[in-house]
Structures are given as structure tokens and as C-alpha cells.
Amino acid sequence: MEERERVGAGLIEMDEVFFECVYDQVKNVPAGSVCTYGTIAELAGYPKAAREVGLAMSRVQRAWNLPCHRIVNAQGTLAPTYAFGGKDKQRALLEAEGVAFLEDGAIDLAHHRWPPTGEPEQLALPL
DNA sequence: CCAATGACCAAAA
DNA sequence: GTTTTGGCCATTG
After folding, report:
1. In this structure, is residue A74 part of a structural domain?
2. Within a domain: residue A61?
3. Is residue A45 part of a domain?
4. What range does the domain containing A20 cover?
5. Residues 52-71 of A near strand C (Cβ < 7 Å)?
6. How many folded domains does chain A comprise?
7. Which of A77, A82, A18, A20 is nearest to A50 (CA)?
8. pLDDT 10s digits, A60-96
9. Within a domain: residue A98?
10. Which nucleotide is nearest to A50 (CA to C1')?
């Protein structure tokens, strides 16, 4: 019906299926955890469309209420083009949720990666 | 349809 | 650790 869905100030005329799935996964990421583009793509049904996930993120609007700051690349580093203020803002948001960063400025994916796909070593061991 | 682009990923040098 | 190369697939002109 009509031309896809008009969202805020942007008109979405892409494969809503893929994007909807991506956004759904992003919404599923719990606070304090992060997810990689590749994982999101995989969950969305396109195991190799990691770039499209990033593209979807760039198209995200604030009104959608998506925690896109929890999506990082496979290296645990933040993209330079975070839509809501840049990587600096993204990092601040993540730290506010309890995400720890390494000295290199990358996120410790071993502790914050989500979902816990088959990794049995989620033992926090705080001390 | 073709070419270029992109918040990527992994392997190789 | 960095830089380069290839692949991946949807969007855009």
C-alpha cells in the first residue's frame, strides 16, 4: 500500500522486511550489552549483509527509539558516523549503560557481546 | 541495467 | 599494531 511507510521526515522505500528485521534485533539488544553489524545481519536473515545493517543505522531517526548506539563493528570499535552525535556521543551512552571500553578505545566484546551465542564463558568473575 | 557508495567483515601482506 | 584487497548485498544516481 502507498509508497512504503513514511517515517518522520524520511521516506523509507527499501526492503522493509530486511530493515524491519534489523530494527527488531536492535531493539532486542539489552542495555549494557552491544551487538555487531554482522550478528544483527545474521539474525535478520542476511548473514553477509552487515553493511546494510550499518546503512539501516544511518537511516534511523530519533523518533524510532532504537538503541542504535549498542551496535558496533566486529572489532568492538565505534563507527565515525553515529547518527545521533558521532562516536563520542555513542561511547558516552554505552558507558552510561555500563559498557566498559579498553585502552585502545574499543569495547570488550568478550564481556558485552550479545547474544551469547554458544560461548559458555560468560562468568563475570568480578574480582 | 550499470556504476558508485556505504555506521561492514575477514584474510593477507 | 597498520594497510591493502576482495567479497558481500542493498541503496542511490
Report:
1. yes
2. yes
3. yes
4. 5-112
5. 52, 55
6. 1
7. A18
8. 999 999 999 999 999 999 999 999 999 999 999 999 9
9. yes
10. B8
